[in-house]
Amino acid sequence: QILHERYAPGADTGETMLEHVGHEGGVVISGEVEVTVGVETRVLKAGEAYLFDSGQPHRFRNVSDRPAEIVSACAPGYL
Question: Distance between CA 45 and CA 31 in Å, rounded?
Answer without folding.
Answer: 6
